[in-house]
Amino acid sequence: MNKVGVIMGSKSDLPVMQDAIDVLRDFNIEVEVDIVSAHRTPEKLFDYGKHAHTKGFAVIIAGAGGAAHLPGMIASLSPLPVIGVPVKSSNSIDGWDSVLSILQMPGGVPVATVALNGAKNAGILAAQIIGSNNPAILNKIIDYKESLKQIVLESAKDLK
Ligand SMILES: Nc1c(C(=O)O)ncn1[C@@H]1O[C@H](COP(=O)(O)O)[C@@H](O)[C@H]1O
Question: How confident is the model at residue 31 (pLDDT cuts 50, 70, 90)?
Fold first, then answer.
């Protein structure tokens, strides 16, 4: 029950969503990627949201641009935690359309929303959720945080 589902509204979102897929694979977490659109494939959306928790998923990452209803609709259907990635799509209003669609959920139906195009953080957050109950993944997160610290400390050495 450690799999992460990474879904997006269109294949055009893949260049952004690839960051989540890459970081999860770096953490050796199994990822299943799919295209699911609330607007264009509503039956697939319903089926995915209703059954993901019976298929070994622990977390769902959902990315979409524009009128980004996908993450919220998945959150309304699924008991699993949903992380939303606002995607700055080609005809967007600077990405604000997607940010606000994903962020401003009604009470009772949370979507953990990351920054615009913040798929990497979505992947790390999903790994942290899994790591809270999995010591091997938790240790990888600890090592990852240590590596971030070392990069910053190294970069500061040049300044002296
Ligand atoms: N926001 C949604 C949903 C949805 O929320 O269900 N389905 C597709 N889209 C978004 O439409 C944008 C343009 O899609 P196309 O590039 O396919 O025209 C994409 O960013 C997609 O996530």
Answer: very high
Return the residue whose CA atom lies nearest to atom 16 of ligand 1. 12
By most ligand atoms within 8 Å of CB, the mutation choice from 12, 98, 99, 113 for ligand 1 is 12
Run of H or E including 119: helix 119-131
Q: How many Å apart are CA 62 and CA 111, to the nearest integer?
A: 9
- Distance from C-alpha of 70 to C-alpha of 33, rounded to nearest angstrom: 14
Six-digit token pair at 13? Answer: 């979102």
Nearest-angstrom CA–CA distance, 129 and 140: 13
Q: Is the ipTM, as predicted for this complex, more than 0.90? A: yes
158 pLDDT band (50/70/90 cuts)? confident
